Amino acid sequence: MKQLIEQYRRLRSRHYLRQTYSGEFAFVGIGNHSINNLYPVLDYIHVSLKYICCKSENKLPLIEQKWRGVNATTCLDEILADEEVKGFLVSASPSVHSAIANKVLKSGKALFIEKPPCSSLAELQQLMDLEQSSVVVGMQKRYAPATKILTGRLKNETLLTYHMRYLTGGYPEGDSLTDLFIHPLDYVCYLFGKAEIRSCEYIQGKNGVTLLLTLRHEAVTGVLELSTAYSWQNANETLTVNTERGIYKLSQMETLTFTPKQGQVFGIPLEKVVQRSVITETLFSRNNFVPTAVNNQIYTQGYFDEIKVFVETVQKGSLFAPYSGFYSMYNTYTLIDAISKCTKK
């Protein structure tokens, strides 16, 4: 048994060491989100960054000191002209994402771009017209392990309703609709398909805004509360999906549970007649005890797999990455466009 354990450990170590990528990449952006969520993934999977591009010349020597062997520059065109660079990762200010994406796509290089990739449906359609190379839009929740489990389960369910809550603190530094609420709006479009607005209420508070929505998809109707009028310390994101068989609950991409319904006989709920223990099944839960990569929040939130998928797509020379090219964002931006018109009335 001891020999088998040692052999398994050696095989696991060799598998990790064999995972190498030969292509050269460039990163545009050096903000807080990139440093905490994206650069660690690139470092872990040993992606070769040839360039880091930012808008401040004062940061260039600091970047080259921090990342040995990386060329720091403020000139995007310089990187685009380098034939060795096969892929760009862009996580800059949302206001410049569309313009940068436009340039990268015209160069024929692969593109990973953080959300929001653009500010409107019209801009998205322009990017869709240019999408002839591999593109991954950074909607990381699509790549979360809990999402993969939930999408697989929902395929076999008869859906009734869902309830989505996305609650944060104030967001004065940007557009809450495209910068924050894009996450839950994209998530329900990804899970349930195209959405039509049945009701929309916009509430402007002293410290934030709240959107109350009722959406109708092809097979399900949902209610959403999206708000920046709560708290960042106690920020909350939950999705409850009610199906004929039972209820799914997803919390913060950290836990996914399923509670079965007890059913009815002649229209009478069994739980009113027979007292039974209801067993809630845990379909996914992050293990906070074992500090491995798959138990890290970067992994469970989907950042790890979205970057890895992009890098491997570039490595293989594939034209399209799964889950999240510009075409996959059409339903999301159609919904955002409709909400924008509702809130301006």
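The record above closes out task 2.4. Task 2.5 opens with a second protein, given below.
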Amino acid sequence: MFYETLFDENAACHLAMGRCYPGNIEGGGEMDDAALARAGGNHSQIHIDWMIGSGEIDIDGLAPNGDRTPVFRKGEWAA
């Protein structure tokens, strides 16, 4: 862990609880809370991120054609 949110969010398994990011839903930035909920988003007073990981985690990126690209191996960035 780097103890820097911008790096740590992308350096482990990232979990988030609370309000969704409306920009991740097409047109979400223009939606009120009710429309956002109908589109699958949620409203909350909070949005909290935290990261978990260990030296046992392997993560692969999966391409649309099914090809896998190693991202993490044993909890470290893959070379």
